[in-house]
Amino acid sequence: MTATDPGDPAALVDAAVAGDRGALARLLTVVERGGAGAHAVGRLTYASAGSAYTVGITGAPGAGKSTLTGSLVAHVRRLGQRLAVLAIDPSSPYTGGAILGDRVRMAEHALDDGVFIRSMATRGHLGGLSLSAPEAIRVLDAAGFAWVIVETVGVGQVEVEVAGAADTTVVVVNPGWGDSVQANKAGLMEVADVFVVNKADRPGTDATVHDLESMMDLTHSEGWRPPVVRTVATIGEGSPDLWAAVDGHRQHLEASGGLVERRKARVRAELDLIVAQRLRARAESLLGKTNRITVQSEVTAGRLDPWSAADQLLAPLDP
Amino acid sequence: MTATDPGDPAALVDAAVAGDRGALARLLTVVERGGAGAHAVGRLTYASAGSAYTVGITGAPGAGKSTLTGSLVAHVRRLGQRLAVLAIDPSSPYTGGAILGDRVRMAEHALDDGVFIRSMATRGHLGGLSLSAPEAIRVLDAAGFAWVIVETVGVGQVEVEVAGAADTTVVVVNPGWGDSVQANKAGLMEVADVFVVNKADRPGTDATVHDLESMMDLTHSEGWRPPVVRTVATIGEGSPDLWAAVDGHRQHLEASGGLVERRKARVRAELDLIVAQRLRARAESLLGKTNRITVQSEVTAGRLDPWSAADQLLAPLDP
């Protein structure tokens, strides 16, 4: 099998379910690449998925998300449960490569079958991560991981969407540099199910915890109120508390029926994205390359505005 | 005119060009809202745009981008040039509101006709910011601002795309917390035309400058090499150096023909987005709401996978 050949998806899925980590890695590459191969994998894993519980971890660059994820991995392994980590890295369309740190982290757990760590990029296709992340989670689910941690690199729109689509979303801030206010600006307050103040051995921790609690006093009058947990991820301090908070949220969701509703909303959004992507592909083939290039030249020369150009390009589709 | 009535776009454009700031603000609201009103404005401003030079400012939350932008505003006004600031905030689909800080910042320049500051959110439409940001820039261009600074809130995919689509892109990092490495992870290294180490009165500044220069030794063998500028934005220190670096990049682009190429690539990308958005709207109306809801229920009940559901929904479009 060559690097670009997805092979037989059904055989790969069977092998991954049986514990073949190489097959699992190849499946995730197929999913990441998108297109027909990814859809074949999606069809195969959809029915069997639904057992894994997903935890999103997001926050500003430098907040210590990778270190925190590492400390959770250690904690969950001590509890004897299998887990996978999916590191979402939408910036990679620019480089097209996996993160070096990913391989370093994976090496730590190379002999532990109960952990699987993988980073995922978009490979440049629009809506890519929002589509490929749930597919990748289903693959990991089918491979028998009880927990899937989805860790984001940035805090932009796509990352917030992906992390916010987890069953439980953890938002990581730091003490002392207005991080709680920045979290609010970045839309993180509204996706958070659990807050973590990481680097809680630094000055300003109490003030940051207080800021978060004050913001929640304003916004959370009923239902689940996100707890604020303090951690020092570099030494694993607070990881059990954080995991207990995640588990508390899980119990709340399961008891309230919220989990079923969240998952339904997610799959509806996924269906919308799939339909949009297919329509786009179909339309691009209909438009025709030659006409497109001619119209583009008129626009870049300033002789035609982009809206009138779109009218011209789409005219052949009218009945 | 009511708050939701875009009014007569041509009259608004004429008024904004003549210096009416209320008309300008209303035009930007029309653009932000998207749809037919935005396209009408786009058609009206396309031919007359192209004089303004755009500067993107991006970097991690907390890096001091707003403060740095403020110090640049003060510097450019001392030079006697008119400029506008567009603060890109893609997180706002969650809140749908403008940033309070925006109004605070605007108040500082309330009596200065040479400055216009405005934040812009997506209002929830897909591809929204990537479409509305260039339209907004054209409106500000037509209104006679020589410079448009595009400042982002986060460093996600959308923000990096929008900031990276400026004529000159400034990437802001801080000393001492591995920010340069994080910038690399977030894809910022590849869009940067100028680097700023802000908060350069803090320990670790030399190390961060050194990190950035080392990374560039590896990646920039020819062409423009981004200079690294030190600033302390809170006291305006380094703003003249930063502006000189921006101007240096502008001269390089103008001399090399790179500016024309950048702008052509941008308008091609914009045309693609407009076509994709129109196709989506057209397809959604074709699909029909009732059928969609039925198929959705099958998917959320687990009886149908999303890919087969997409097949069913799209079948009526086949000839």
Q: Which bin fits the share of residues in helices of chain A?
A: 40-55%
Rounded mean pLDDT score of chain A: 81
Shape of chain A: globular
CATH topology of the largest domain in chain A: Rossmann fold
By CATH, the superfamily of the largest domain in chain A comes out as P-loop containing nucleotide triphosphate hydrolases
What is the domain total for the residues of chain A?
Answer: 2
CATH C-level class of the largest domain in chain A is Alpha Beta
Helix and strand pattern of chain A: HHHEHEHEHEHEHEHEHHHH
Provide the gyration radius of chain A in Å.
Answer: 22 Å
Question: What structural class results from the helix and strand content of chain A?
Answer: alpha/beta
Number of strands of chain A: 7
Give the strand content of chain A.
5-15%
Unreliably modeled segments of chain A: 92-100
Descriptive overview:
Two copies of one chain form a homodimer. With 319 residues, chain A is an alpha/beta fold. Chain A folds into two domains: 50-256, P-loop containing nucleotide triphosphate hydrolases (Rossmann fold, 3-Layer(aba) Sandwich), CATH 3.40.50; 272-317, no CATH class. Helix content of chain A is 54%, strand content 13%. Chain A has 13 helices and seven strands. Chain A has a seven-stranded parallel beta sheet, sandwiched between helices. In chain A, β2, α5 and β3 form a beta-alpha-beta unit. The first copy, chain A, is globular. Mean pLDDT of chain A is 81; it is low at 92-100. The interface between A and B is large, with 68 and 68 residues.
